[in-house]
UniProtKB/TrEMBL annotation:
It comes from Corynebacterium mustelae. InterPro entries: ARM-like, ARM-type_fold. It comes from the Bacteria. The lineage of its organism: Bacteria, Bacillati, Actinomycetota, Actinomycetes, Mycobacteriales. This is Uncharacterized protein.
Length: 279
């Protein structure tokens, strides 16, 4: 089933069927069911998870339970938050890497919504430290997502730098670079090495990833961003003349519009002129 078919099926399914589907071999169906279950009443979610935690370990359903409990769509109380942390801790007891990655993502979502604080992080800090030493791709991606929202820690800053270095030679670089950029854009971890990495990515051939790196450099007001923005603009102006129409990315336009640098404001106006010419 494709995602749309899964989504439609889950919209009309009852909760019992949805809980069965989170164990399905079809990943699209599992996540569509999980997204639908996030909208159930919190007490019903907890009750269903408690029941499944008492059964034999199933990696698919445990991974999905972290996905569901980490992004509940109902209003939460302080007791609900404690309950979520207790469940995530029990899920971590499995020691399964896919479940650990899902729990880390869940924690990232909870922090992104300001539902967890410093004391909560202390509860999970050792698990996160251990995860930073693992070479599993899913865990690496989960960490880079969650680090953007976790409280500042020096070991997390070191981890981001480590992933920057690995992304230059990593066979999984095409999958990792967007997540490294995400951590750099939203996380509190500026550094010269990070800026150098962003400059390298922004200077590559025209791509969405290069545009994202440029937008981050503009937000950070890195000196090299001016020349890179000029090159970005010239490429778009040239593509208009050649009738190839390179994409002008919204994130670059927003970063240029927010800048106080007159040179960047001029580039912003030139890009808008290209957009008007295309329209």
């Amino acid at each position: 089933m494709d995602f749309l078919d899964c989504y439609i099926a889950c919209r009309t399914a009852d909760p019992a069927q949805l809980w069965d589907w989170i164990m399905d071999e079809d990943q699209e169906l599992r996540y569509a069911a999980g997204r639908q279950l996030q909208h159930e009443q919190f007490a019903a979610i907890v009750s269903a998870i408690e029941e499944r935690l008492s059964l034999e370990f199933d990696p698919r359903s445990w991974e999905m339970m972290a996905f569901i409990i980490g992004q509940p769509q109902s209003q939460l109380t302080s007791d609900d938050i404690i309950c979520i942390c207790d469940i995530l801790t029990r899920l971590l007891d499995s020691g399964n890497q896919a479940v650990t990655a899902s729990v880390i993502c869940a924690l990232g979502h909870l922090y992104s919504n300001d539902l967890l604080g410093e004391q909560d992080f202390c509860r999970f800090e050792q698990v996160i430290r251990v995860a930073c030493d693992r070479d599993d791709l899913d865990i690496r991606i989960s960490l880079l997502f969650a680090i953007a929202f976790f409280p500042h820690r020096n070991f997390l800053a070191d981890y981001v730098l480590q992933q920057i270095q690995r992304s230059r030679q990593d066979p999984f670089a095409s999958q990792m670079v967007p997540w490294v950029l995400f951590a750099l854009e939203y996380g509190p971890y500026p550094s010269n090495e990070a800026d150098s990495f962003l400059i390298d990515i922004a200077g590559t051939a025209a791509s969405d990833v290069a545009a994202e790196a440029l937008a981050i450099l503009l937000q950070r007001e890195v000196d090299a961003a001016v020349a890179l923005a000029e090159e970005y603009c010239v490429q778009r102006e040239s593509s208009l003349a050649e009738d190839t129409e390179l994409e002008i990315h919204d994130e670059v336009l927003r970063s240029l519009a927010d800048s106080r640098d007159e040179r960047l404001h001029e580039i912003y106006q030139r890009l808008n002129a290209v957009i008007e010419a295309i329209d």
